[in-house]
Structures are given as C-alpha cells and as structure tokens.
Design a protein that fits this description.
The complex is a heterodimer. Chain A is of the alpha/beta class. Chain A has ten helices and seven strands. Chain A has a single domain, classed as Glycerol-3-phosphate (1)-acyltransferase (3-Layer(aba) Sandwich). Chain B has eleven helices and no strands. The longest helix of chain B is centred in the first third of the chain and has 31 residues. The chains are: A alpha/beta, B mainly alpha. Chains A and B meet through loops of A and helix 3 and helix 4 of B.
C-alpha cells in the first residue's frame, strides 16, 4: 500500500471515529441491507458533516470503496481545501457551474463508477438552508440511473446533522444522529425524467422522521 | 481498604449469580422453544451491560477522586447529548449548545475537583440560569424563546448539576469518615440502581396496580413498595460502607429509592411527550445513559444535602 492510500485510510478511520464519538451515529437499514453490490447512496444535504456521517455508517469494506461527489467550485477555492478533498477524503469533484465548466460532471461520475466505486450524491445540488425538508432534485441522479441501471440507487435520510454542524458553524454540537437507508429506487422503462426525480425525492422524504410518523400511524 | 475489597467481592457475587440465573433460564427456554422470549433476551443484554458498567465504575474508583469526577463528567456529557437531541433547538442556539457541552460541563466538574462548594452549588442555578437566556436573547431569535430557554435550563440542571452531586459526595468532610467518600458513592449507586432492579423484579412478579398508567405501564404499586422495602433492607445491610447507623442507612436508602422512583417517572413523562421509548441506545438492553441515570439524577442532590446537613458539622 502506498503512502497516499495509507493516509487516506487513517484519515477515514479518524473521521469515522470522530463522527461516532460526537454523534453516536447508528445506521438503520430499513429498506435494504448492507451488501457488496455497487451502489449510489443519495441523501439530503444540510451540513458539511453529511458525507462523513453517511460513510461512517457503512460497513468498513463498503466505506472504503465509497466516494462522495462534491462541488468542485467550493472545494477548489483554495489549495488546502483542494488537497483535503482530493487526497485525503478522495471525493469525486464535479463542477456545478453550467456556463464555465470544463469537464462534464456526468463523465467524471461515470468514470468513478467504472472504477467500481460506490458513490454518495446529494441530488439537491447544494446544502439546504430553507425550512423545507428537502429541495427539488437536480437531474444528475436520473442520468446516472439511465446510464448505469445495474447500480442500486439507495435513498439515505441523514437525521439531525443540520443541528450538529449547521452551515457556517465551525464546532459541532454533540447530538445523536441516525442514517436511515431506504428501499432502492429503480428507473421504470420509459419513465419520464421529471417523474423519476419526483419519485426518488419522495422515497427519500418518506424516510424523514416527520413522514415516518405519518406513515406509521395511518 | 477492607471495605472496598468486600464491596467488590459482593458485587462480583451478585453479578455472577444474576448471570447464572439468566443462563439457566435461557438454557431452559431454548429446550422448549426456538425463539427466546423478548423479556429474556432483554434480561441477558441488561446483565451483560451491568458487567460493563460495574467494570467501568471499578476502573474509575481505582483512580480515586479524579477517576470518579471524570467518569461523571462523561455521564453528564452522554446524558446531555441524549436530552438535547430530543429538544427543540434553532440555528441561533448553536453557540449556547456548544457552551453547554464545552464550557458548563468542564467548569462544573472543575469546581468539584477543587472542592469549591460555595461556587459549584450555585454555578448552574444562578450564573448559568441567568447567562444562558441573556446570550439567547442577544442572538436575536425570539421564535419559541421561552420554550427553548426552559429546555436548555432543564437539560443543564438534570444532566450536569444533579448528576454532579454524586462525585460531590467526595468533597464532604464527615468527621471520622475522612478519605472514605468513594464508599458513600458506592452506597448511593448500589441502593439507587439496586432499587431500580428490585422494582423491576417485584413489578414483573407481582405488578398489578399501575401508579401512573398514562405515563408508564411498567411502574406498579407492587413494584414500587416491594422495591423500596427491599432496597431499604439492602441499604441497611450496607451500613458498614457509610458513616450511618444501620437504621439510618436503611432510611437513607429508602429515601434515595423514593427520589429515584420520581426521577424515573419524570423521565418517562418527558419521553412520552416526545414520542420515544428510550433516550438513546448507548447501553445495550437498558436504552440510553439517561434511562440508566434518571433515578440517580433525582436521588443524588437530595442525598447529598441531607448528608451535608446532618453529618457535616
């Protein structure tokens, strides 16, 4: 194993340990179980801690092959961030800016999938700062489902992380967090982009505590 | 100290006995049924968790005062984390919440460490009581202000102030009992936790009439009365750990148990209001830290002040 891989690994272990120590995070495998299948985990996004929390909830082997997709415009803004994202966290950096972007995000994500990685994506495209529980989904998720029907799309609801580390905060408040894994979403034949995205969004939203209360009590 | 040795031998004996009984019940049940009844599964994990908890407390005791203070600072941290998770917080509370964990807990336990009774007994109920709403007001967010502020106060009082009165017993200068504060803590924990177990056992065996059916289906008059009487006897039999006479030890234990019962009842009411069964999942079979500490929270401050009033000149 080379030095970079070792550093990556210890960094991942450190972050997972930290996430557990602060939030006591527990995975709830509600709609699927941990498996060796290649997956795209799509989750709600409120905090920088989200992908660390999600990957800490995965079994160690799955965690090692799972990479988070993050916005290049944010993570390339300065050198330190870039090194952190690229070398230590091993994220897949994609440009969110439509006009000026050099590389097609789809190509980059499909490349990572072709290397047998699982992905963590946040289809809202940005951290949700509104009172709405979940923003509209961008179309990337649909394009991924279309291009790689063999990869499972797993909705994951990250609970409480927005309270632990809200946007702009530096120190986390220790609160208990959960990650709820739902039933994988499959693209139907001839399903319209809009319909699929709405359905995927609803499947994620149904995992939120508020919706779970409604679903469980009629 | 001979008392410490006897205490640990006794604890080991009780735990071994409990494990043996549970193993026997499990073995018997396996022969007749494929699936273990859930009560038995829960009993097994509870006993396993007791081994771990007693192990943790023993290690802390080995390190003396410092160990016990650190242990209870950690208990406060875990309890406060479970509590705040269930409360309503807003963006503007972020700094106050961090302060509760990173400032209030360390200061309260530091004041215990240096045994400054005059300040640790009023730091939370006076200074934090006033500072927290002031800082919340400065943050400018008035939405559900009273509710947020009250919930923060409650959290600090329960999880930090009340719990810290367990290690505070070490700071009491009881004549003729110098250097034996750890034994008094062992007495308090043993009788309060013992009464929890005994109430559970009596409730399971004879429980019929519920004390507060709307709050907790598992708290019965039979369990409560059986638990208090048996825990008082337990306390009386542990009088050799304390500066109390046998009768006094029995009465103190009985009082600690009644307070502990109210602690459990209040904790149940909060959980019911928030629609959860347990505070957390930290301790296998028991739930969260607060599920285990709720009785101690109510018992510790009262126990502390009675000892201080009657035994400290």
């Amino acid at each position: 194993m080379n030095l970079k891989a070792m550093m990556r690994r210890s960094c991942a272990m450190l972050l997972a340990g930290l996430a557990r120590g602060i939030t006591g995070v527990r995975p709830i495998w509600q709609g699927c179980s941990p498996s060796d299948r290649q997956r795209i985990y799509f989750a709600n996004h409120c905090s920088h801690g989200d992908f660390i929390l999600l990957s800490s909830s995965l079994p160690p082997r799955e965690r090692e092959r799972t990479r988070a997709v993050a916005g290049a415009d944010y993570w390339k803004r300065n050198k330190l961030r870039h090194i952190l994202a690229k070398d230590l966290l091993n994220t897949v950096l994609v440009d969110r800016n439509w006009v000026e972007r050099a590389d097609d995000p789809m190509v980059i994500m499909l490349d990572a999938l072709a290397q047998d990685s699982s992905l963590i994506v946040f289809p809202e495209g940005t951290r949700n700062m509104t009172e709405e529980p979940l923003l509209r989904f961008r179309s990337g998720l649909y394009n991924l489902a279309l291009a790689r029907p063999d990869v499972e799309l797993v909705p994951c609801w990250i609970e409480n992380m927005s309270r632990v580390l809200p946007k702009g905060a530096f120190l986390p408040v220790p609160l208990l967090c959960r990650v709820v894994f739902g039933t994988p979403v499959v693209l139907e034949p001839n399903e319209d982009r809009k319909d699929f995205l709405a359905r995927a969004r609803q499947s994620l939203l149904d995992l939120s505590p508020e919706r779970q209360k409604v679903l469980n009590h009629g | 100290m001979a008392e410490t040795v006897w205490l640990f031998i006794g604890l080991l004996g009780v735990l071994t006995l409990a494990s043996a009984i549970a193993t026997m019940l499990t073995w018997k049940s396996r022969r007749t049924a494929d699936v273990l009844p859930s009560t038995l599964v829960n009993l097994n994990s509870r006993i396993k968790a007791w081994w771990i908890m007693i192990g943790g407390i023993s290690v802390a005791f080995l390190f003396g005062k410092q160990g016990v203070i650190l242990l209870f600072a950690f208990v406060s941290f875990a309890a406060l984390r479970e509590y705040v998770t269930l409360t309503h917080t807003r963006r503007g509370d972020h700094h106050i919440l961090i302060g509760m964990f990173l400032v209030i807990i360390p200061i309260q336990y530091y004041l215990l460490w240096i045994e400054w009774y005059g300040l640790y007994s009023i730091f939370v109920p006076v200074y934090c009581f006033l500072a927290m709403p002031a800082l919340t007001a400065i943050s400018g967010d008035t939405e559900r202000f009273l509710e947020r502020v009250s919930e923060q106060q409650w959290g600090i009082m329960l999880s930090v102030y009340c719990i810290s009165h367990v290690p505070a017993l070490l700071t009491l200068p009881i004549p003729g009992f110098e250097g034996k504060g750890l034994l008094l803590i062992a007495f308090l924990i043993a009788t309060v936790q013992g009464s929890d177990v005994l109430q559970y056992v009596f409730g399971k065996l004879f429980g019929k009439h519920k004390v507060a059916p709307k709050i907790s289906p598992s708290k019965t008059w039979e369990g409560l009365i059986g638990g208090i009487i048996s825990a008082s006897l337990l306390g009386a039999s542990l009088a050799w750990l304390t500066p109390f006479t046998v009768i006094q030890a029995g009465l103190m234990a009985g009082l600690a148990c009644i307070m502990g019962f109210f602690g459990g009842l209040v904790a149940s009411a909060i959980k019911r209001d928030r629609g959860v069964k347990d505070w957390g999942h930290m301790i296998e079979g028991h739930g969260g830290m607060l599920d285990r500490a709720d009785s101690l929270i109510f018992a510790a401050p009262v126990f502390f002040h009675i000892v201080r009033y009657f035994w400290v000149p």
